[in-house]
Write a structure and sequence with these properties.
Blueprint: E1 13-15, H1 17-31, H2 41-45, E2 51-53, H3 58-84, H4 86-104, E3 120-123, H5 124-138, H6 146-151, E4 156-158, E5 162-163, H7 165-182
Helix pairs in contact: 3-4, 4-7
Organism: Oerskovia douganii
Protein name: DivIVA domain-containing protein
InterPro entries: CHP03543 (IPR019932), DivIVA_domain (IPR019933)
Length: about 180
Amino acid sequence: MSALFSTVSKVRNGYDPEEVDEFFDHARQVYEGKKPERLTSTDIQVSMFDLVRGGYDTHEVDAALDRLEGAFIARQRAEYVAVNGQQAWMNALAERARSLYGRLGRPDGERFAPAGRGEWGYDMDDVDDLCDRLVAYFDRQEPITAAEIRASTFARRRGKDGYAEGPVDAFFARAIEVLLGVE
């Protein structure tokens, strides 16, 4: 077991310590160049661990994943800048931001596909409110950080009253990458 994370009581669920330790050990080896493969910020975002009784505290592990994602993005930025220059990095970020901004230009209630009939989705108003904050950020009217987007929560709605979760999650994952690339 890792000394990095505390465990929850035996009556509560936490992340499987073996899976978490294996993932972080693998990530450390990739980061240090001891493994030839690449690990991207997206790989870190989509990492999932089984819940077990008495496992690692989920909040601690999730916070460590956020820091790990930031470290990999900072490294990606440094490598890109070393090869292509700072201006090329800023141009790449600007291109990503423009693609996000295109989606944000759609009217409220039409930015993402609706959830399927009887399926749970995210409340359209909640998602659109966060999208409006991103618009204000891109228009340089209001600051927003990757941490704020990560901490955002959406109420749930069924069917056409909610946005399908997959496209919303993917969109905000890309927005986080852009924000981390700037921070």
